[in-house]
Amino acid sequence: MSDITANVVVSMPSQLFTMARSFKAVANGKIYIGQIDTDPTNPANQIQVYVENEDGSHVSVSQPIVINSAGYPVYNGQIAKFVTVQGHSMAVYDAYGSQQFYFSNILKYDPDQFKQSIGSIDGFKYIGQCPDIETLRTIKPETDGQRIILQQHTAGTGLGGGYFMAVINGSGYVDDNGVVIKTAGGSVWLRVNADKVNPFMFGATGGNDDTAALQKMLECGRAAELGTNVWKASNLELNNKSCSLSGSGLHVSRIEQIPGATGPLVTVTQDCSLIYLSDFGLYGDGSTAGTSGVAIESGNPGGASNYPFNTSSDVRRDISISNVHITGFDELGFDYPETNFSVSTYGLFIRDIKKTGAKLGSTDFTWTNLQIDTCGQECLVLDGAGNCRITGAKLIWAGSGNETPYSGLRISNSQNVNITGIELQDCAYDGLYIKNSTVAINGLNTNRNSASSNFSYHNMVFESCIVTVDGYVCRNYAATSLYELNSQAGNVRIIGSDSTVLINGIYETEVNSERLIGDNNIIQPSSGDLVINGLKNYYTYTGELKNNIPVFDGVVTTAEYVSAPSILGQENMLKLTQSNKDKLLFSDKISRYGCTIGLVLIPSFTGETTMTAFTMGSGYSPSGNSAVMQFIVNSSGVQTIAILLSGDGITQTLTSDLTTEQALASGGVYHFAMGFAPGRLWWSIIDINTGRRIRRAYRQPDLHAAFNSIFNSGTSAITAFSGPLAGDIACEGAGSHVYVGGFSSESDYAASRMYGLFAPVNPDKQYSYRTLNGTI
Question: What percent of the chain has a predicted confidence (pLDDT) above 70?
Fold first, then answer.
């Protein structure tokens, strides 16, 4: 009968069939087998019973089954193994027909049902599990590859379970309390599919101090994933030959410093060789002193056997950091001292550091898309760095809340530093400070720096360095923004005479802005070698300058002079009266490429007035070609800057009313300037005492095409302080420092102001520059 599966043994729960109330055999008794929960003595309820032979074959037998004198069931007088194919009820009777036992269901389960249950979608619940890691260490495996299920890492947590596989000879393994579990006999249980690990596997719970678990995870040498949890830890070390730690996002996955703990939250030791950190945050508590985010051990221990292909005594060790957020620490967000690590970052965000955001002192690193803001000291320090590149950096709010001056970016004692695309904004003191270094910057934006210092600090400071800046934006927003955010900062300061600085591409809007206020650009005088936009410093220029002498004219043709204010650096300046029609007539004419003129004017007025700062051409009329800049005060005290244009029988007036804040003061010292070329025109007025500037610029189609006729004849004259004609309106007050030259853009004019607020715009384009210090 090979077509049956008889696997349920007919037996008592005890070994022998004994009496119910005395410990002796049910001699000559009988056994009845029936359906579950029925009376098996009733033939209708009985099921088939088999004797199982030694060869596994089965023979059906009739009921009742006889019990011998020793208490064993027998078949034909021989002790036999009786089986059925299913669970059943059992009744046992003695030789006198009295029932000794009745079991409604001898097995409590049906084998076929159990097979169905174990094969169902939730059949796993019928399988036993090891309760925890501690118990797993006590279980001795029998064969290589044997598997066991771990319910949880630590009893009572329900976390960190998984599958483990046995290795009998575990001599090459070290117990790490998560992936490798070693038994007392030297075998190991290896966690299955643990190429990537998480803190739960090492006993972390995600609620309290998980330092020990996270440290074990970092030491296991496998790729570690933080998941979407917040972990609390302190003083973690990356000390394996390689380590990969990643999360699910900057603000989704994070490790928080345990309150009160000091020192770095994460330290990269010299034992490491290859490190990858990505997509998580490191958070301090924002109050504990002596904390930092990431610290890399300094020094160079020389060759290390755990680094691939290491044969050099100055082995490089590599760290890659991508999309990591560091915030809320005291000393430093990121400390990268002189070391043999080569650190590459992309998307490193550092914020709210009480002292320094990041400090770099090593060589051969590349940082991309860096943002550091709200630091009590510097946002970024490069000290002793070299052969390095920073591409895309935004540094904001350095020196925040600190009375000691700190710059946004400080570079010192560093060589071959290359920076591309950097913004320094809202720093309390200097924006950029470079000392004893060689630096190349491509794309620099500085705005609203020196916010806490009342004109004392600068966007850029250079000391004993060689620097090239290509592309420099320093508008400080005020020229075009909706807000009067006028920077307190000067632009450039050079300390000493041993710096060489080349700045190319300073940007000014030169658009028809509704806002008239421009940025402040004050520098301290310097003998350093500074070239901006190819413009040389007039005061250190060694080439031969063109400097034609104009003719003084007026009702009385003898010039008079008055004392000059000390800010102009000379004793005298030209006296100007409207009654005498004082003016300077230049022999140079306007070229077809345009012209730029600038002069210092101290206007004197008590009420309504009109003054002509300068005139290009023959005078404003439909029959003439001209461009005239006038300062007008009406009877109500409203001040206006008017540009009067005429040409080819057409006239055009461009006016800009000044607000009370922008208005000029009688007796104030101002630098007036205008540049114009075919299709473009800009004007500017600087308060020399404060550096505050108002400005406006126009391009076609705002400018009538007829205006271009002034450039065509080659005969258009240039006149300062009035027009060329006897009856033209003149100025009242005093004047000096008149510059006339070829056309310079507003960008070049902005650059020239860094040499001085009333210096020549471009010595190479100069026709004439007259200080009027007692002589024309």
Answer: 86
CB distance 390 to 367 below 8 Å: yes
Count the residues in the chain: 776
Rounded to whole angstroms, how far apart are CA atoms 315 and 302? 6
Strands 680-687 and 670-677: antiparallel
Q: Whole-angstrom Cα distance, residue 370 to residue 352?
A: 15
State the DSSP string of 589-628: --BTTBEEEEEEEEE--SSSEEEEEEEEES-SSTTS-EEE
Q: Which residue is associated with the tokens 């658009």?
A: 511
What confidence tier does 299 reach under pLDDT thresholds 50, 70, 90?
Answer: low
Query: pTM of this prediction?
Result: 0.75
* Residue 661 Cα distances to 211, 516, 606, 638, angstroms: 59, 11, 18, 12
- Contact partners, residue 183, CB within 8 Å, separation at least 6: 137, 138, 139, 140, 141, 170, 189
Q: What pLDDT was estimated at residue 527?
A: 63
Contacts of 273 (CB under 8 A, 6+ apart): 241, 242, 304, 306, 307, 308, 317, 318
Rounded distance between C-alpha atoms, residue 630 and residue 612, angstroms = 4
Q: Which of 152, 154, 150, 155 is CA-nearest to residue 166?
A: 150
Distance of CA 510 to the CA centre of its chain: 32
45 φ, ψ (degrees, to nearest 5): -95, -10
Per the model's pLDDT, the better-predicted residue between 411 and 301 turns out to be 411
DSSP SS3 for 123: helix
Beta bridge partners of 282: 255, 326
Q: Is the pLDDT of residue 616 over 50?
A: yes
Q: Name the strand (E) or helix (H) holding 133.
A: helix 133-136
Alpha-carbon gap, residue 716 to 589, rounded angstroms:
5
**DSSP symbols for 58-76:** EEEE-SSEEE-TTS-EEET
Token pair of 628 as six digits: 């005239």
CA nearest to 671, candidates 578, 749, 583? 749
87's CB contacts (< 8 A; 6+ apart) are: 8, 36, 105, 106, 107, 108, 109, 110, 111
E-strand stretches of 580-728: 583-586, 595-603, 609-617, 626-633, 639-647, 650-657, 670-677, 680-687, 693-699, 718-720
CA–CA gap between residue 355 and residue 568 (Å, rounded): 41
Residues 332, 355: contact at Cβ < 8 Å? Answer: yes
- Diameter over CA atoms, the chain: 160
d(CA 547, CA 544): 9
CB-based contacts of 336, cutoff 8 Å, min separation 6: 296, 343, 358, 359, 360, 361, 362, 365
Give the rounded distance of the alpha carbon of 687 from its chain centre.
39
User: Is residue 121 pLDDT above 80, yes or no?
Assistant: no
**pLDDT tens-digit map of 56-112:** 889 999 999 999 888 889 999 898 899 998 888 999 998 888 888 888 887 765 556
Q: How far apart are CA 375 and CA 16, in angstroms?
A: 85
Q: Is 334 exposed, middle or buried (0-12, 13-18, 19+ CB in 10 A)?
A: buried
Burial class for 187, CB neighbours closer than 10 Å (0-12, 13-18, 19+)? buried
pLDDT tops 80 at residue 25: no
**Is residue 762 predicted with pLDDT exceeding 80?**
yes
CA torsion sign for 706, 707, 713, 716 is positive
Distance CA(759)–CA(755), nearest Å, equals 7
* Whether the predicted pLDDT of 314 surpasses 70: no
Distance, in Å, from the CA atom of 314 to the CA atom of 322, rounded to the nearest integer, reads 26
638 has a pLDDT exceeding 50? yes
Residue 376 has pLDDT above 70, yes or no: yes
Q: How far apart are CA 474 and CA 443, in angstroms?
A: 11
